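Consider the subject:
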Amino acid sequence: MNIYSNLQKAIVANILITLIFLIPSASKAQILYNFTTYNSEKGFAQKDVMKIIQDQSGQMWFATWDGLYRYDGFQFYDYKARPGDGIRLESNRLENICNDKYCIWMRGYNGNISFFNKILLTIDNLPVENYVAQDMQPSLSGGIWIKTTDNRLILASIDSMTRKVKIKVLFKPNQLLIHRVYQDPSGKLWILTSKGIWSYNQKMKLVREGFDCFDLIRQQRYNIFCGTDGRILIINREGTFISKLPTLSTLTSIVRLPNGNMLISTKGDGLFVVSNKFTVIKHFTTSNSQLNSNQIINLKSDTHHDIWFCTGKPGVMRYNSTNNELSLLQMKGEFSIDPSMWKNDVKIVEDRKGNTWISPSGNGLAWFDRTNNRLIPFFDEDKQKEWTAENDVVDMFVDKQDNLWFCGKYTGLQKATSNQQQFHTLDIKSNTESGRDVRGIFQDHEGRIWIGAKNGVISVFDHTFRFLGNLTYNGRIRKESYDNIAHAYCFTEDRNGTIWIGTKYKGLLKLTPKGVLNYNISHFLSDGKPYSLPCNDIFSIYLDRNNRLWLATFGGGISYISLNDPKHRFIHAGNELKTYPMVFNRTRYITSDNKNHIWVGTTHGLICFNENFQDPRHIKFLRYVRDPNDSTSLSYNDVLEIFFTHQGGMYVCTYGGGFCCVDWRNIKHLKFKPFTISNGLRSDIIYSVQEDLHHNLWFASEDGLIKFYPKSERIEIFSSRFFEKNIFINEGQAIRLDNGRLLYPLRNRSVMYFDPLKVKVSSYIPHIIFTRFYIGQTEQLPSSAKGSILRENINYTQSIVLPYNKNSINVEFSALDYRDPDNISYSYQLVGLDRRWNMIGNRHNAIYNSLPPGKYILQVRSTNSDGVWVNNLREIHIIVKPPFWQTGWAILIYLSIIISIIIISAYILFTILRLRQKVNIEREISNLKMKFFTDISHEIRTPLTLISGNIKEIIRKGLPDNNLQERLRVVNKNSNRLLNLVNQMLDIRKIESGKMKLTLQRVDLGLFIKSLMDNFKILAAERQIEFILQKPESPIVIWADSQKLDKIIFNLLSNAFRFTPTGKHITVTLEKSNNGALISVMDEGKGISKENQKKIFEIFNSDDQGSLTHQSHSGIGLALTKELVELHGGKIGLKSELGAGSTFIVYLPQNEPSKNPNADYVVSDKIVESANSFEIESDEKHSETKNRTNYSNNTLLVVEDNIEMREFICMILREDYNILEAENGLKGLKMALEKQPDLIISDYMMPIMDGIEMVKTLRSNMQTSHIPIIILSAKTDEESKIKGFDTGADSYIEKPFSADILRARINNLIERRKDLQRTFQQKYIEKKDKVLSTVNEADKLFMDKLTMILEENISNDALNVDDVAAMMGISRSVYFKKLKSLTGLGPNDFLKGLRMQRAAELIDKGLYCNFDIATIVGIGDAHYFSKCFKQYFGVTPTAWKKRK
């Protein structure tokens, strides 16, 4: 008995365990559907949904007790009356809605009809008074028909042209009782009333009067109508006939059966089956069938030709037309015994696959199991365990994709989507959630499947998923075991069939087989010993080709043991793996490729190394991490898995960066191509990947599975909708079984498996609609107002025209696929702007800011809810208008204006040219005269120099004949006058060419004018003219060019004396004016006529009438005066009358610093007070006052192409200097190199080589760079002077010149050269800190190089001049002359000076005796050294030392 009892217990236990560990879970009675509840979280807060419809575009509409709702798969939009919004909606509480092309028609709780215009987004009421709608149905021709409570029939529709409501009212109020309205396929209305039958097709027609009719059916040859007292009316082409059934009850409904018979219901006598000849075949009543009531109101037929009806009792009746059987189908439920829930009408819907849903009397919603003829409760089992009161259905609807929409009385709106059972779960039953949380799965060589759960139980199944048992502590696989072995994260099997298990917290397990389902268990832990495990958390195991077992630990990096070594020493970074970068210590995955590389995935990136190493201490690790600046780098550093395909592809799964396809042809420079949300993924967290037999990849993400086609890079998404339940895929490696099935660990249902070759996706093409349109942040609604962007709803708009200042847009759209809207991905492009499609995932809008004017096409496309890209392109044209100033009309206006301006300008210009033609001719003549005189002036200056110079030289030396001496003075005076005239002509030429520049300094005008007037005192006294200056007591100081001001005042005074008779007055007046000064010169001459006043300041205009001098004038003075005044920014004017004298008035502005940008300012405390104060002391006077110095030892080189000028210069200089001559710059250059003169005098302009080029060459040559150079030139402009000085000239003298000035300049340069020589001695011999600012760079380089050579060789007592010259790279004579010219010393004296200065320095240091010092400075004889020292310093070395 005990044995039997124990055996019985064992059997029961085995049965229970088998039930606990059921293989794939059996399907329940209910078919597999995914349920979606729409509540406030999804934007739909209404629970009272009365009607559900779908319009032609595919949008869903819902009539609720709080308004009308529209759903596009993305969001809900509500339309209802709100306070102050102007919407004419009678009631937000809607009972029914129906749809046509233009409108959603609504029947409110108060019985009024309203309509929502889908094109204009407006709501209005039906323009009919005093009615209450009882029923409302759509019309096939558009619009609706309405049955009112007072038995009127109203036909309402929208006119396609005017978009206004058209109304047709049939029957007067209470004229008759309308039982039913039926519309046949042709659109004809059949109206069944208590007083007859009418038809309506644009016109009313009485078909049969007096027949009280309730229902009809139409046959090809006749129509059959049901009436009272069992009467049947038959109307055909032959006439009208009446047949009668054997009953006095009213016939309520009639249905034609497939075999031609008819099923007719009665109001109290059950159900009749009638032949087409109107004979009764069968009569069903409560007494002879399952009929639970003889009162039947309405019959409904499904696509299987079964007839359904309710009788006001619980359940639903089904008439099977195939076997002619009647059956009662009931479900036990909360409402089945409540009579108030019993009804006479049945709700029935079907999908295209033949599934039928029924809402029976007294119960909620049921799916009809046709095979077993039963009703199966239909509800969301994840939220409910059984039927409740919430399952009572108000309405239900099957959309175009066979989704079932229904609304429970208390549950609100729900959607049920069919789910093909392609993915299955191996659900291990467990008392805890951790028992279903699986991380590690594995298939061994015998096909057994190992599964490790979080609760520590390791389960084993065979290849058919039959449960074999759990691993026990003693190594056996037993069904009744629940041993908490370890949380297994990973498995592998070695060549001997040993199973290795990596665990979390419990290190490494080794299962050595010792029989069937029996193993010896060895346990390896991290115990702190050098060759133990580095960490007890093992996330991945891999066995390489060298029989090494690699472990990826989370915290200890990687480790390996050689299975050829029985000691099992773990090699890691703590012992021999010295080169491993421990910043990558958190490793998640380890594997290898087919090229002998080991790859490691870590939380910090990717690592690679060669597995064929000899010494682990010398392994070279390659690292790959994310570079934010490199788009081809790793997308994210947290790597979960590395996978190599059978075709050599490499993929990396990351926790946050999607997955990457890796180009690993260059192992040192991997290129990663990421696939993320932007490519259509639902999540960037990718756990694992596995390859199917067709070489497609299946990635596991936190939001489902991703199928990836490597060749086309196409992506398909499998979200939770595809699965049996809401499952969550876990981290951990996926595996492919021997039969091709793929397995993935789950977090809540153990394991998911499927056959990837049998997984199918939908080919449904969803229609795309445009839902909203924004400009900036403002939504644009359709409006007829002026300036409105949209005239119609954006979804009905073909083209949008935008003004240029409203060009930032946001267009929202949605693809109408309701199976899984969140799994739809979108892309868009704006043709005319974008070069490629923008992939935006499941985002629903396109945004463009500041679109430039132009024509564009916005194109949108999407996937379906299975993630398959389909051909559903939707587009809308967008035109951004340019601003007016960029339009064609504006351009035309611009062109017109430009052409007009050109024509007017041409006319004005032509007129001006014609009027000024004479002036231009006169100006041309004046310019020619000016050019002629200017050219002549330049030519005159050279002979004038010869004349003036010779005369002055003769006058300087004196003549015995005083008469001849006086005549020479007259000649000299007139030559000076001629020179002044030449200078004036050149000044005017400079002003006209813009080459004259002012040098402004502060001038005291009163004192300055007085000093100029002093020059005219003698002349005024001789002519008895009273010469008066009127000026204020306080000084008037302005900024002016004193030289130019001198010429202005002098010319005005000269002009006054020229015209003022003897005994008259000349008055000069100075007064302060606004920001400047006024100077007026008034004479008492004859005056100037009005005609001459107009051209008095023109050049060469000489008015000699009234002049008291006998000399003619050139007419240059006043013209130059005007130009100089205007150059100062001033003005000059004239007041004159004939016989009353003339007054010249000059205004000069203050010209403070920075006021005149074209002038140079001389900022000084000194104020110019006289006309001569700005001049440098005359060289001529200086040469006269000083005693002449003898310079006969100096050699001068004169370079001049004019023979007479060259002879004149030589003549005046020959008695004081040695003279060399050259006729051009080239010969002068050669002579300077050969003769090394002490000074060079050169002309500016010469043939072959001019003076400037010669000076430039001399200065760049070390042999001649020290020679002073004077340039003589007839070019008096500042630009020529600046060029001469920049080239390297030491002085610039204008022709004609004074011989005394030339002598003085030569003497000054020679004296300055002597000063410079003393400076050179102090700097280079005495080592004093002297600044050589006036020495050119070539001379500095020469002295620096020479000093360096001599100091380096100072100890060489055999050093001579030839040696030094050779080291300098010049001849002995050049070396001598250049050094002599620069320092005044010969080579030996210069060297002796250096040696003596060095000796003095050594004596001061006190480190050496005199003999040593003599040797150091290159003087071998100490006695001779002492003599030289005393000769140089005046004391002996011993005395020097004592003095110091």
About this structure: The chain is about 25% helix and 30% strand.
